Amino acid sequence: MKFPRKFSLLEIAKLLEVEYVGSENFPILGCNEIHVVEEGDIVFVDHPKYYDKALKSKASVVLINKKVECPAGKALLISKDPFTDFNKLTTHFNPFKQSNLLISESAKIGKNCIIQPNVFIGNNVSIGENCVIHPNVTIYDDCKIGNNVTIHAGTILGADAFYYKKRDTGYDKLLSGGGIIIKDNVDIGALCTIDRGVSGNTTINKGTKIDNQVQIGHDTIIGKNCLIASQTGIAGCVVVEDNVTIWGQVGTNSGITIGEKAVILGQTGVTKSVKGGHTYFGTPVEESRKKLKEMAEIKQLLKNKKK
């Protein structure tokens, strides 16, 4: 999430009411979660296990809950609760905006689009040309949709990320300030749900086709010309490279990569990253021929044992 202008370290420290380490004029351009952080951004970290990753990331400023040595070329914001302070940044720079219209006045819709009844289109949504949006589709704020896109009935684009921190009192929610980008020539089936990014964008690239009842988590990137069959659940921060085929009822762990031209057979649990150009099956996931051979060997062992 980029800020509307360049802010100084001192300005952000005052906004959050925290200490800082570094020049008070140190420039800050935005804030992002660790998976999508860029130079000029703030990233937050609140567990020693991830200190090193955050401090060595592309982030220019680390919002952290302990005074540590500041890496060269970076700055620190010292917070008692970085998770809550990161939420303060989201609330300040991208607050929730109520819409009282089915189609927001700030939405932009291109030529030759068909918008069927009962479609909701939120603030700052842009839709390209020659799109068809079927009844009861909900498009939350800040979604960007390309040309020649079809979205079938009941689909929801832009719900919040499923991202919580467990406290003694329950679960605290990490607020979502990102968006969704749908590129050209994408088809999305009925009753799909695609969550917005926490601070970046969930992206569906050109030519990808998504079946009914598919869930795609926050900040996930789906490549070009992918096929994703019904009842698949893709977790947050996943990268699905180009020309991947995912068959029905597949589930994935978060933060993994599925390589280019991979094929994931139905009911597979993708528990780790997998290389492209191969077919995979089973839970935990393995190359399909290896997995099927193992299953056949186990079956034979059990058969021999009965004898």
Automatic annotation (TrEMBL):
Keyword Transferase belongs to the record: yes
Domain UDP-3-O-[3-hydroxymyristoyl] glucosamine N-acyltransferase non-repeat region, residue spans: 26-91
Record GO biological process: lipid A biosynthetic process
Molecular function (Gene Ontology), one example: N-acyltransferase activity
CDD domains registered for this protein in UniProt: LbH_LpxD (cd03352)
The entry's keywords: Acyltransferase, Lipid A biosynthesis, Lipid biosynthesis, Lipid metabolism, Repeat, Transferase
GO CC annotations on file: membrane
InterPro entries to which the protein is assigned, alphabetical: Hexapep (IPR001451), Hexapep_transf_CS (IPR018357), LpxD (IPR007691), Trimer_LpxA-like_sf (IPR011004), UDP_GlcNAc_AcTrfase_non-rep (IPR020573)
One Pfam family matching this protein: Hexapep
Residue intervals passing through the bilayer: none
Superkingdom as given in the UniProt entry: Bacteria
Protein name: UDP-3-O-[3-hydroxymyristoyl] glucosamine N-acyltransferase
Organism: Lutibacter oceani
